[in-house]
Structures are given as structure tokens and as C-alpha cells.
Amino acid sequence: AEAMDAQGNVVPGVLMRFQSQGGRMQGGVDSLGWVRTGSPGTITVAISAILPNARPVTERVEVRIAPGPTARLVVSPSVKTLLAGQRVRLDAVPVTARGDAREDVVSWSSTAAAVATVTDGVLIATAPGSATLTARAGTASTNMQVQVLAARGVTVSMTPSKTRARQGDVVR
Fold first, then answer.
1. Of 81, 125, 150, 170, which one is least surrounded by beta carbons within 10 A?
2. Residue 167: predicted pLDDT
3. What is the pLDDT of residue 24?
């Protein structure tokens, strides 16, 4: 950091002091102004310019600590077999090598779009067969093998067939 006057000229002889303010989990700053990080987040750094026989001038700067690049994707739930017509919401989280979550956009592709696809995070089983679904974010990708079975002759029954419940009740 450099202290500058109103015309943008560097002011000589100024002593600069750096101090981190707030939480310590994200990191800190040393006496030379080097920021060290611990985890993603924001560090507020107070920078004071001290000139002999003058009032100190202090500025606060927020330094955003971004996670590292995406190293892998964590997809849940792990789905292997579906019935044609079934839909399942998938959660795909890009993470760094250290396990920090990122906010990268995840794109999906399918080796057999007529069998299964992922649209807006929802796995849609369309027709019997098998497909490999691939999730990508940055340079990371992961595959998921899905088998879709015919839904003919499949029925679902709920027990009990009738129940009474009010808002807030838990029905098992």
C-alpha cells in the first residue's frame, strides 16, 4: 500500500500499518500487508498511514478469499436403477482438493439421452436401457451409470391407504 496526496502523488516517509479485523478462520495479515488464508470467506484489513506530526489516516479493505479450483464433484443421491417415468432430484456440489464447496455451474450430459437425462438438476428416466450421466464443473467431472427398467406391471401401494393428518403432524 502507498499513501497518496489529493493529486495522486506518493507521500514519502509514511509508515504503513496493517491489521486484520474480525474472524480469524479466514486468515490474517502480517506487518508487511501480506494476507495469509485459512478458509474461504472475507477478511477485513485496516490499513493505517502514519506520518510524523500528522493525524493517521485509516482505510478498511475487504479481501475476499475464494476457494481453490474445482477438483471433484460430489453427487447425491447415488442412483443406479430407476423405472421409466421416474424423476429424482440430484445435488451436485463442486469441491476443491481441500473439500471447500464452490459455486461453479454444473452441466450434465448423457450417453443415451433417450434413456436418461438430467435437466435443471432433475434426473429423468425416459425409457428402458442404460446410460452414463456425466456431471462437469470447471475441469472436474464425474460419471454415474444408470439402468432404467420398464415400468409395465409395476404398482405402488401406500400403507395405510387412508390417514388423517393436520399441518405439522408427522405421519409414518
1. 170
2. 87
3. 65
Asked if residue 119 lies in contact with residue 140, where contact means CB atoms within 8 angstroms, the answer is: no
Average pLDDT over residues 166-171: 83
* Distance, CA of 125 to CA of 131 (rounded, Å): 10
CA distances for 24 relative to 32, 42, 60, angstroms: 18, 10, 16
The 10 Å Cβ neighbour count of residue 31 is 9
Chain length of the chain: 172
Residue 132, beta-bridge partner list: 145
Side-chain-side CA neighbours of 169 within 13 Å: the count stands at 7
Q: What is the pLDDT, as a whole number, of residue 42?
A: 84
User: How is residue 34 written as a grid cell?
Assistant: 501480506
Q: What is the pLDDT of residues 22-41, one digit of tens each?
A: 766 677 888 888 888 877 88
On whether the CB atoms of residues 68 and 97 are closer than 8 A, the answer is yes
